[in-house]
Amino acid sequence: MRRYFQVAWAVLWKDLRIELRTKDIFTSMAVFAVLSLMIFNFAFELRIPDKTVVIPGVLWVAIIFSGVLGLGRAFISEKDRGSMAGLLLAPVDRSAIYLGKMLASLLFILVMEAFLLPLMVIFFNTNFISLPLLLVLFLGTLGFAAVGTVFSGLAVNTRTREVLLPVLLFPVMLPVLMAGIRATIGFMEGDTLVDMMKWINLLLFFDIMYLVVAYMTFDFVVEE
Amino acid sequence: MAEPLIEVLGLRKAFGRHRVLKGIDLSVEAGASVVLFGPNGAGKTTFLRILATLSRPTSGTVRVAGVDIKNNPEGIRQYLGLVTHAPLLYGDLSAQENLAFYARLYGIENAEKRIQELLDRVGLLHRRRDLVRTFSRGMVQRMAIARALLHNPPILLLDEPDTGLDPQAAEMMTDFLREIGGSQRTVLMTTHHLERGLDLADRVMILQGGRIVFDEPSDSLSYETLRPTYDEYVGKGAAVT
Predict the structure, then answer these.
(1) For labelling, which of A35, A95, A131, A208 has a CA lying 20 to 30 Å from the CA of A87?
(2) For the segment A27-56, what is each residue's pLDDT rounded down to a tens digit?
(3) Considering its fold, how many domains does chain A have in total?
(4) Range of A155's domain?
(5) ipTM associated with this complex
């Protein structure tokens, strides 16, 4: 079991090291998130009197769309540089590779969110950030990274990989997206954590389900 | 008679309706150096990828050290080192960082010492802190061999390791492979270069159309006898001299 987590940590360390040097993933996600915010801001500014109505939707759409860019790179970058086989040759259950990749993607998206949230506060001139909201964002992002990393591994062997990833991912992500948006609306309207437990439980349920399914299927997903 | 280290029985592989391997039977003793020639599309890479547990056979059996690769792929991978024309390295990591990463994947004890030793052996110790993307093709391929040897595997699979190398770098690679081969390690290599392959082999095979059509010990062959044999099975101009 120690070896399993050593391999997952090695993959996470390697991805972080490369990202700190190149900043490829963070730059593309952050630029896309800012552009999404600007477009939403200008699109809604003249029509919506209460901006808090649109903030949950804008927040989650910006996270999901820019997050897909990061998730896509998880395995596409390995394939492009021809290093995918090197990972798969590791003498360990391949779900350890998945775990390392998933944690790296999760971290990249969380960093992007840390950059996005203050920007949204400035753009919409409303401080909607709270601890329960951060919990919901974390759980939603975990589910997103869990299922997105598997689909990234699946899409990498196809010719239409950039298109295939969102096409596969978005329908599967709907329950997490719905629960995330509902909980965000609730917290912005002043609901307590107890009031929102049904949505948080739903997020937890899908997070666990996605992680278990990914653990069981990843080996088949990446093998020819 | 000793049990073969690699044993392949009735191996078939198809991608959809396209059959790449059409029934391969092969037995390789420990310490043998087997070179597999064949034109593009003959199935050489697919064959090595199946041995390396990167691809699943459609049917047939592959045993490494007596263990079916379907039953214990993780265990089999510990026995294998793979060098392909893609180096399986990260250009944005240094030589040392690349090997340290792979050492963690393979759970190698005293990795630092082993990395220094291998970098010294491939002549790249002085460049250990440089990013791999600053290396020449020949240096990258030497790094790829160091990566494949990191966990000291008893079996080395080489898939056209000389692709893209200039003649001088290819010659250096051949010398290095000769040095690391020998009686301790089993080497299975594919190449288009008949003369270089023959130089390294103690057994020569030709793969054509997904089948092994020729299998002879190399001591009964010279380039002059192998060239017409290859042309006969594969067609003229299919291999690099």
Answers:
(1) A208
(2) 999 999 999 988 887 877 656 777 777 889
(3) 1
(4) 2-222
(5) 0.87
